[in-house]
Amino acid sequence: MKEKFISIQEAIEKAKGKVSIRGWVHRERKQKDMVFIVLRDSSDIIQCVIKKDTVSEKEWNDLQKVLIESSMEIEGDIKEEKRAPTGFEIEVLKLKVISYSEIFPITKDLNEELLLDRRHLWLRSRKMTAIMKIRSTVFGAIHEYFRSKGFYEYQSPIFQSVQCEGGSTLFHVDYFGKKDVFLAQTWQLYAEPEIFALEKIYTIAPSFRAEASKTSRHLTEYWHAEMEVAWANFDEIIKYGEELIKHVVKKVLENNKSDLEILERDVKKLEPTLKKKFPRITYAEVLKLLKEKFKMEIPWGKDLRTIEEDKLSSLFDTPVAVTRYPKQVKAFYMKEPDDSKKDKPVVNGVDFIAPENYGEIIGGSERESDIEKIKKRLKEEGEKIEQYDFYLDTRRYGSVPHGGFGLGVERFISWICGLENIKDAIPFPRTMNRTRP
Fold first, then answer.
1. Which parts of 244-298 are beta strand (E)?
2. Under 8 Å between Cβ of 86 and 53
3. What is the pTM for the complete model shown?
4. How do residues 122-167 score in pLDDT, each as one tens digit?
5. Which domain holds residue 86?
6. How do beta strands 402-408 and 346-354 pair?
7. What is the DSSP letter of 118?
């Protein structure tokens, strides 16, 4: 076959005339004198009709051995056919089987765990293909947003020796016999030193949390979009977060309409995010709302759990920025504002809670610049101050107001796609019970 191959989407756009395509068998139905093949490639699917008296005897015999996921090259005439899955059909003139498939081990009857066992094959499904396309758009849009704002891309080490988000969620590793080495929870402590040079930095990198959680929102390995910026106050950090979310959602709605349709995602639920300013409410106001709307009595100082975040999100159709959390439930590096009360101290920390019960998608803060306050918090948490000398040096030599945030990319993708489980937002999910395939 000497014709230039084009994608199925390009063939559909051509609408008529001779085309040459290649891909994998998505569906097949054999009759006595006719075979129907639905072929797929990365762009779309299309129905192909092969008549026995149109192709050679060898081609017809080869076709009888074709099963789902066999790979093929096809040449023929494309025409409109409203009864076909995508509205077009190819009348096949020539075909070549590239590789025959064995009986495909995925059927409609498989449950979630079996699909995860066969994830390497389930990635070929239309659902997972659509999600992975949206995931690619999300990653690209994150890069695009930060670079458009003058940020430099910057990387920090994956092997780290100081904890940032809580010692109970650390993945310790055997690092040539050294005990106090673990996988990165975040880039932050290694990002802050660089803002004194580049001022505005960001990254997209894997993070690791040893959380003993089996919920539909948690992964032990996930991708983390993080930023850190010098000279920024708390309001500016929140503004960056809102702009980033809006930019990414806009790009997905522009570029992935057909993928969202495959996922049966109601895009009207995403549109308010572009049209409205995100509400900003304090932790204290959240407690008041939960009491008034849901009769939930949450004692001041208790962190918000999934149930409280879900109730809160039900009141809004956009992400909501929750600020001024109790100092006791947030990390040691978060800045305590001047008006913080001694009996109920708060910090300039913010969590963006997604609508539709998707939980926190961004966590950020203004960073504490007072070295003595940082030392005090570290001591209160039982940390060895000397382990943090490199970090404390950032406050000793020309400290400036600064802050940043981290966005959990898979949780963000889950909300955009309307997924039931975060495990579908990443090619090969890692959870408490799953490290294979």
1. 280-282
2. no
3. 0.95
4. 999 999 999 999 999 999 999 999 999 999 999 999 999 988 877 6
5. 8-99
6. unpaired
7. T
